[in-house]
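Ticket #297: bound-state structure for zinc ion.
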Amino acid sequence: MKDLTTNTPGAETVKLKLAIQKSGRLHDDSIKLLKECGIDISNGVNKLKAEASNFPIEVFFLRDDDIPQYVEDAVADIGFVGENVVYEKKKKVDVVEKLGFGKCRLSLAIRKGEEYTGPQFLAGKKIATSYPVILGDYLKTQGVSAEIHEISGSVEIAPGIGLADAICDLVSSGSTLFMNGLKETESILQSQAVLIRYQQLEAAKQQLLDRLMFRIQAVKKAKNNKYVLLNAPNAKLKEIIGLLPGMKSPTVLPLAEEGWSSVHSVLNENDFWDIIEQLKAAGAQGILVVPIEKMIV
Ligand code: ATP
Ligand code: ZN
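RESOLUTION: The complex was predicted; output attached.
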């Protein structure tokens, strides 16, 4: 088989340079996604960068806040980083794909005991945040004039120590807000990790990115779908097939037992439970649900 990772002798080997978070909430999921794409960077991982043994890619480990700048400057060709950071930094990079991990929201919160009356509540107030750009844009669109106090960490303690009247910070479960005597009032941005790209990526690197994107999309699709196998009495087959979307149409195989068939199909996670209930009600038996590792359509 032709080894796609080796280029012609003498020619410079083209490698895609990917920046991911060095440590923190996005690190493990970024490595996991590469692994699911069949990209192995376990060899020779040092603190700064790692090279894949089976795909022309080099991975740089950086602070997430710096990733948009490195990609704008083509120090890295692509990066995995939260949308919150991309929109805050406003660097010239393309957002290519949502990656499905690192989900959180950027929200406004005020002291628990206070009554929230809508965005105008914030007028003339002091808001602590690490996201002054996104918050500033939000306040502008709401026509609210407030004082933005930029701090780099532990934003949630600001109201408690009298530093601010409200905060604008990343939230996932809300438990940090609760523990600090705060309540969430508005969510101003939904965020997840995205793949960003240098805007003038050369053709050879774009080809590598296309190969990587093909794998990422297959992994994402597989996660959103389940493979379902069930037994159906032939008398109910038409009704049961009618409930199943399938990639094209479901596979139907005769069972050894007369009058029964085995039906195989793919179900989307969103309508999964609804359809399973309907299948059961329609007479399906022995329903098996199997995770899909990769899905190429
Ligand atoms: P670094 O040292 O790399 O700058 P950091 O402290 O800024 O790290 P983390 O707390 O690891 O970063 O968060 C990285 C990203 O994870 C955030 O920018 C955001 O996109 C995402 N994220 C997901 N859930 C949360 C959450 N509950 N709180 C903060 N960030 C979250
Ligand atoms: Zn950061």
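RESOLUTION NOTES: Helices lie at 27-36, 67-72, 83-89, 132-142, 175-179, 203-223, 237-243, 272-281.
TICKET STATUS: resolved
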